[in-house]
Amino acid sequence: YVKKTSEKQRGAGTFDPTIEMLQHLCALGYGKGEGAGLGGKRLELDLVFNPLGAFLPPEQGALEAEYKAKLKADFDIDFDNLFAITNAPGGRFGERLLKTNNMDRYMNTLIGAFNEETVPAMMCRTQLSVSWDGTLYDCDFNQAVGMPCKNNLTIADMAADPSIPLAREIRFGNHCYACCAGSGSS
């Protein structure tokens, strides 16, 4: 909700259009609660937070309350949930960690904060990510690092044979520690 820090993370010129789109979605009824949307249907609006650096996100409940108060007061934006996501050590963030020689320190932070209680709620246990070409991934982080599901099936394979079991062996990498560190990612 602060332009300077938001644009430091997302890029120059990204804050104002994001606020305008969130206001537009709220005007359509998103994030307003039961029956506030088009045709009286609930239109949920969820936001995602991830820290600006190589550290764990703050406690999700307190962060959500803070964001709800600030976005409402400053921009008249309502939303339903704020999900706090830990930065996975891949992609541009991983490149920055390597460039600044912080990868080992960050991985030690994630491993040291491992919380077994978060494992049942990890997204890879109940969701799949699908790429543009139909390749299936255990999660969006696996998709980002190019680790398809071990069974190498596509969404087309699943559609062609509905008897294919959805249960699968999940592929893990070091980035998986981000989802089970501290309070877990959302």
From the structure above, extract its key features.
186 residues; mainly alpha; 2 domains; two-stranded parallel sheet; two-stranded antiparallel ribbon; 36% helix
Beta-strand segment tally = 4
Unreliable residue stretches = none
Report the biggest beta sheet as strand number plus sense, adding barrel if it closes: 2 strands, parallel
Structural class by secondary-structure content: mainly alpha
Order of strands in the sheet with most strands: 1-2
Order of helices and strands: HHEHEHHEEHH
Query: How many domains, in number, for the residues?
Result: 2
The radius of gyration computed from the alpha-carbon positions, rounded to a whole number of angstroms, is 19 Å
Termini gap? 19 Å
Helix segment tally: 7
What fraction of residues sit in β-strands? 5-15%
- Shape type: globular
Overall pLDDT metric: 90
- Helix residue percentage: 25-40%
Describe what you observe in this structure.
The model has no long low-confidence stretch (mean pLDDT 90). Strands 1-2 form a two-stranded parallel sheet. It is globular and about 50 Å long. 36% of the residues lie in helices and 6% in strands.
